[in-house]
UniProtKB/TrEMBL annotation:
It is found in: Secreted. Its main location: secreted. Keywords: Disulfide bond, Hydrolase, Protease, Secreted, Serine protease. Gene3D superfamilies: Trypsin-like serine proteases (2.40.10.10). Residues 52-315 form the Peptidase S1 domain. This is Peptidase S1 domain-containing protein. GO terms for biological process: proteolysis. Signal peptide: none annotated.
Length: 342
């Protein structure tokens, strides 16, 4: 004799709605992270999520322990959805026990309740390290951030609690001599390896800082994108650089004593996918970074001093991360690319 199975139609409907919501969010996140981009202009500021293109995997969290991943959190029927691997969209750096530095365009028009901060692992799936998700209390966007020009593209995130992992904050640079043409720089982040291939493992790329005049000689469209308050970095012939998903992450240089963060990933002028041009790490199209050491005026004649603004909000800092120099093997890619005919 068969038994009757009773089904609660209301519960079934709720489960179907949850499944539909998760499917939509997964598709949306995948689409945004893999979306092809075209040339930036004043009317179309840099995409919100460049990622490291080229480079190598990071195998040890102690190499860059201060890196964090921002990811979207969505509330549905009282439950939170979102993860670093499925809805991660920007990076940031730990600059104090309760503060993260990132790009303004990563957090503009976003609610504190819709952003999670992932720390303590080089794997977005949490397979190694002491992965934690920390929520946030406040977002401080630079008061003179200009979304149309993507100028003063820098912001601070206050975490809901102090980080309880043994992570030392990254040092911030105030010495402009560390930003000279040809200086070896390091970019780190999660994302595209080539075309639309993605990885959950943190990657690093080694690229040179470039004089702005070289960039303008290559492409006049950068006139609307680079300012006195920005740094440009990348190989003249391309091959490695930032790409979709890495905004807010650091540009680092070795001072001789410790690693210094000189820039915040802001954007890039990409090639046109529809014209068959490379969309990331393209020839004569370096990445754009907010220059942390900048003191001066912006294009609207506002007085700007990023380091003072940061210090006024987070206070004085101690116990900086030191790290170790790049090995000869790590520099191989840099020397091979930088010596290419330009």
């Amino acid at each position: 004799m068969s038994k009757k199975i009773c089904i609660n139609k209301k519960n079934v409907l709720i489960l179907l709605l949850i499944a539909l919501f998760i499917s939509i969010m997964t598709f949306s996140s995948s689409y945004l992270l893999g979306k092809k981009t075209t040339y930036q202009s004043k009317a179309a500021p840099p995409q919100n999520n460049p990622k490291i293109y080229g480079g190598t995997e990071v195998t040890d969290l102690t190499k860059w322990p201060f890196i964090v991943r921002l990811f979207e959190i969505h509330d549905f029927l009282g439950k939170k959805f979102g993860s670093p691997s499925s809805s991660g969209y920007c990076d940031g750096t730990i600059v104090a026990k309760q503060w993260v530095l990132t790009a303004a365009h990563c957090v503009i028009k976003r609610k504190t309740s819709n952003i999670g901060i992932y720390i303590g692992s080089i794997d977005l799936h949490g397979a190694n390290g002491n992965a934690q998700t920390i929520y946030i209390n406040d977002i401080l966007i630079h008061p003179y951030y200009n979304a149309d020009k993507n100028e003063n593209d820098i912001a601070l995130i206050k975490l809901s609690k102090e980080i309880d992992l043994p992570i030392e904050p990254v040092s911030l640079n105030s010495d402009i001599t560390k930003e000279r043409d040809g200086q070896v720089g390091v970019i780190i982040g999660w994302g595209l390896i080539e075309d639309e291939a993605r990885t959950s493992i943190l990657r690093q790329g080694i690229i040179p800082i470039l004089d702005k005049s070289r960039t303008l000689k290559w492409d006049q469209r950068y006139l609307n994108s680079i300012f006195s308050s920005t740094i440009v970095a990348g190989y003249p012939n391309g091959g490695a650089g930032i790409c979709n998903g890495d905004s807010g992450g650091p540009l680092l240089v070795w001072s001789g004593m410790r690693w210094l963060q000189v820039g915040v990933v802001s954007g890039t002028t990409y090639g046109s996918y529809y014209k068959g041009e490379p969309t990331c790490g393209a020839k004569h199209k370096p990445g754009i970074f907010t220059r942390i050491s900048y003191i001066g005026t912006d294009t609207q004649n506002n007085a700007v001093n990023y380091m003072r603004w940061i210090t006024e909000n987070i206070g004085e800092r101690t116990d900086y991360f030191i790290g170790t120099q790049l090995t000869p093997t790590e520099k191989t890619e840099y020397y091979n690319r930088i010596c290419d005919p330009q």
